Each structure stands twice: as structure tokens, then as C-alpha cells.
Amino acid sequence: MWPPLSSARLWLYQAATDMRKSYDGLSALVRQALGEDPLSGDLFVFVNRRRTQMRVLYFVGDGFCLWSKRLERGQFQVSCQGGKQALDHTAWQLIVEGIDLRSVRRLKRYQKPRGGSTADLAFSSIVAHERTGREHERTRADRSDRIPSP
């Protein structure tokens, strides 16, 4: 199952990883080095020393999944300084596509208010539209009173 749920957290293991490791080796690395539970459903991203290979380990339903990518040219632009780093899905996609996150500038975007549901927002916009419509009708009626009839 790919891509995994967008609600899952992404963890980048920043130390170089031996890409010969598979399910058991990477899940042991998650437990010992990252201090996380590999069965949590989170995604754990590993990169080799040369930063030409990437593996993502995650658990879905009843088993582990392992996604791998090897670059024929270039490197993944991640820091290999040790420890773990939380990533959002956008940053991870940029890394996979070969975009250097240091040169990316994030622009302001609309964010849905927290606590309000989409239905509440839709209802408030309908009410505002109805008010505007009534005010428009009133101004039309006011103008018709002022315009003399022929």
C-alpha cells in the first residue's frame, strides 16, 4: 500500500545506514537508535553514507512494508549528522524529487481554522452570501423609489 496515510509521521534517521539491512535490521534500528516503535504506523526514512539510496520502513495492517529508491545520478539532499529529524510529507516529497530544502522558500497559504469543521465554514459563507443578497435587494428598492417614473 503506497502512499501510506498522510496522518502518519515521518522520521528521518540522520546517520548513515547500511542499505543491506532489511525489515528486521531496520526495525531494530528504529527501536534502538530512534527510540520509536516500528509498529506505530509511522514512516522511518534511512539514507546510505553516499546519500544515493533511500529506504522507508513502515507498518501497515498486518506487516512491514519497505520502499527503496536508488539514484542513478546525484544525491538526496539530507543532513547526515546523526539523530532523528521529523519531516512533513511535503519536505519528504521534495527530498525524493531531488530538491534541496535549504534553497526552498515557503510562501504563505491559507490554513483552515482549527476547531471549526468544513461544514461550519460552508454554513457561515452561505449566511454571509444571503446577507449580501438581501442588502443588494434593499439598495435596488431604494433606487427605484428615487427614480421618477415617466
Written overview of the protein:
The relative contact order is 0.14. With 150 residues, the protein is α+β, with helices and mostly antiparallel strands. Helix content is 33%, strand content 19%. The chain has two domains: 10-103, no CATH class; 112-145. It has a five-stranded mixed sheet.
Overall spatial form: globular
- Kindly report the oligomeric state of this protein: single chain
Distance separating the two termini: 74 Å
- Low-confidence parts lasting 5 or more residues at pLDDT below 50? none
Structural class, from helix and strand content? alpha+beta
**Widest sheet: strand ordering:** 4-3-2-1-5
On the 0 to 100 scale, the average pLDDT is 79
Order of helices and strands: EHEEEEHH
What does the radius of gyration come to? 26 Å
Describe the biggest sheet? 5 strands, mixed
How many helix segments?
3
- Strand content is 15-25%
Integer count of domains: 2
Structural descriptors:
150 residues; globular; single chain; alpha+beta; 2 domains
